[in-house]
Amino acid sequence: MSLQAMFFGALLSAVVALVLLVLVRRERRPGVVATAAASALIMPMAWNSILNWTGAIGLFSHDLPFPLFPISWQDTGSGVFTLAGAGIALMAGPCRRDPAGNVGATTAIAALAALVVDVYLY
User: Which residues cross the membrane (predicted)?
Assistant: First the structure.
């Protein structure tokens, strides 16, 4: 996977996360939205870079033969990395005083955006 394709996909993940957080979660705090969107940008880039550097992109990129949701381990890794990164960043930063359920919901939306964009768009 080229660096341009990774960056475009990650950028799209960040935009989708931002839109979902504002429209679905109704999040209005700029720090929360920016942190979650940045996680949806950075973490898929990190995961895909690891796969490229190790030469494992081919091993993890075999889609499930289910046309409605053709997920692969590579797609799953983007979602998991985003979930972890967004969770840590939000808990250490703008959501440190929020209830755990609220932080979890915000984190899950960012991870879902990264996963869905990865499954369907790159």
Answer: 6-24, 31-51, 71-91, 103-121
